[in-house]
């Protein structure tokens, strides 16, 4: 006797084994919720373009019908923004959930919206719109963190801080130099985020399954409607570009996280009782279940592990892409989780780090007390140079005094005052030559550019989804 096979019906009208369906759908019903608004926007642009298509005997959809579809899409997007949009397992993903809803509401008109499009170019558009929005928001937070580090530098000012190489005391530095140095590294991460943004800013719509369609699609028109910088010219290339911008973004995020984790590591070290240069706010420290004296910097430690995680996500994305055959492959669906997770970790980390930096205080006494004679060794040798001694002779002279000290022989090492040493270095970018205006200008320009581009993106969204 033949056993009846259990299957599930989907919008594509295929019958799929429920276990296989669940496996292939994966986390899309949850992850795609973040794409819902962008999916509506992409569909609105596609339908608008369909209604304007020239050279057809009969329009696929009329302009009036396109307006009706846009209105419904506006309603669906509003539901998504309120958190009331639902993707069922039978829908598989946001794309078919939206099509189902439009068909429920508009009948035959809803069934026309997918004309000349594939979920392959559809999801690629959604991801890129979502990414553009997210990258810009990430950039604004990156600038906020850089500004918070700089504010810490202004508060700490020229408080002397031992500069280290190999973790060993090296040369006089200052709290300002430490903080603005990290701030500048954070700000530089905008370059990598911008590279990812430029890739995300290309329009794959109209490539359909990756080979175009025998319809006079106007890919320039959807590019304009969706506020992309230009279309990805080659349809096959457009299908392969999926995953590439996710990997580029993850690379930028992994690098950003590496920078954040170095700030975190310095703060862990400098707030150790043995250093005690910095004091972390008590409410940002966590205790021990057995040791009552503990105020641990868990929040900063986790930034190291999260940096490792994001690097892992980047590696996953590249591993997923490498040696994948040309054209769409379902593997690409798994890129979605990777970049979304990377964004959420990196954004949360930079927000929390900004908060910790804002609450951290400097113990100027401990900072000054850490200046052992060795920290001034180079400066002392350079003082001898100023008095006429050739550099290498001065170097050996001072080195001999410190070698004696190291070996426990009697030695007379010259000392300096930490504050004088900090003030004595005045060239560009050293302790006495940090230019805050330069940083303030970069921060302001970056924020201006972010808000201008968010404005363009949201204006396009508003005009498509009334
Ligand atoms: N959820 C799918 C993804 O993210 C949509 C595209 C499905 N395309 C296909 N040919 N099965 O990749």
In the CATH scheme, the class of the largest domain would be Mainly Alpha
Q: Which series of helices and strands comes N to C?
A: EEHHHHHHHEEHEHEHHEHHEHHHHH
Strand order of the largest sheet: 1-2
- CATH fold group of the largest domain: Fumarase C, Chain A, domain 2
Overall geometric form: elongated
Report, as a whole number of angstroms, the end-to-end distance.
Answer: 57 Å
Just name the CATH architecture of the largest domain: Up-down Bundle
Ligand types: arginine
Strand content: 5-15%
Describe this structure in words.
With 466 residues, the protein is mainly alpha-helical. It folds into 3 domains: 18-111, Fumarase C, Chain B, domain 1 (Orthogonal Bundle); 119-370 and 435-464, Fumarase C, Chain A, domain 2; 373-424, no CATH class. It contains 18 helices and 8 strands. A two-stranded antiparallel sheet has the order 1-2. The chain has a two-stranded antiparallel sheet with strand order 3-4. Strands 5-6 form a two-stranded parallel ribbon. Strand 1 (8-9) and strand 2 form a beta hairpin. The two termini are 57 Å apart. The protein binds arginine. Arginine (ARG) binds next to helix 7 and helix 13.
Summarize the structure.
By secondary structure, the protein is mainly α. Helix content is 62%, strand content 5%.
Protein traits:
binds arginine, mainly alpha, 8 strands, 466 residues, Fumarase C, Chain A, domain 2, 18 helices, single chain, two-stranded antiparallel ribbon, Fumarase C, Chain B, domain 1, 3 domains
């Amino acid at each position: 006797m033949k056993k009846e096979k259990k299957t599930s019906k989907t919008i594509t009208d295929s019958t799929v084994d429920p276990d296989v369906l669940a496996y292939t759908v994966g986390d899309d019903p949850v992850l795609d919720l973040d794409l819902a608004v962008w999916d509506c926007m992409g569909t609105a642009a596609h339908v608008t373009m369909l209604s304007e298509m020239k050279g057809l005997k009969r329009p696929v959809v009329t302009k009036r019908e396109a307006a009706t579809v846009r209105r419904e899409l506006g309603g669906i997007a509003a539901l998504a923004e309120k958190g009331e949009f639902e993707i069922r397992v039978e829908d598989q993903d946001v794309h078919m959930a939206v099509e189902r809803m439009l068909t429920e509401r508009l009948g035959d008109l809803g069934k026309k919206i997918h004309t000349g499009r594939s979920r392959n170019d559809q999801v690629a558009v959604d991801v890129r719109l979502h990414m553009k929005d997210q990258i810009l928001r990430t950039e604004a937070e990156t600038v906020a963190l850089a500004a918070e580090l700089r504010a810490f530098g202004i508060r700490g000012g020229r408080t002397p801080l031992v500069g280290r190489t190999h973790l060993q005391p090296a040369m006089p530095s200052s709290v300002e130099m430490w903080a603005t140095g990290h701030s500048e590294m954070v700000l530089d991460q905008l370059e990598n985020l911008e590279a990812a943004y430029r890739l995300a800013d290309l329009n794959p719509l109209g490539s359909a399954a990756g080979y175009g369609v025998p319809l006079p699609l106007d890919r320039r028109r959807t590019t304009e409607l969706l506020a992309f910088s230009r279309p990805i010219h080659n349809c096959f290339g457009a299908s392969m570009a999926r995953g590439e911008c996710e990997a580029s973004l993850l690379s930028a995020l992994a690098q950003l996280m590496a920078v954040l984790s170095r700030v975190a590591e310095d703060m862990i070290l400098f707030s150790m009782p043995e250093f005690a240069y910095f004091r972390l706010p008590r409410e940002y420290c966590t205790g021990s279940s057995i040791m009552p004296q503990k105020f641990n910097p868990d929040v900063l430690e986790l930034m190291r592990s999260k940096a490792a995680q994001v690097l892992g996500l980047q590696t996953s994305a590249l591993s997923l892409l490498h040696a994948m055959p040309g054209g769409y492959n379902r593997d690409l669906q798994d890129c979605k989780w990777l970049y979304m997770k990377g964004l959420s970790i990196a954004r949360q980390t930079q927000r929390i780090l900004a908060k910790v930096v804002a609450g951290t205080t400097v113990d100027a006494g401990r900072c000054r007390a850490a200046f052992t004679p060795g920290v001034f060794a180079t400066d002392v040798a350079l003082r001898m140079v100023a008095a006429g001694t050739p550099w290498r002779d001065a170097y050996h002279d001072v080195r001999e005094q410190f070698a004696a000290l190291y070996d426990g022989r009697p030695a007379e090492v010259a000392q300096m005052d930490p504050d004088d040493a900090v003030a004595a270095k005045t060239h560009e970018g050293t302790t006495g030559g940090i230019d805050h205006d330069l940083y303030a200008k970069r921060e302001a320009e970056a924020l201006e550019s972010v808000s201008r581009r968010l404005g363009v993106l949201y204006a396009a969204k508003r005009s498509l989804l009334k």
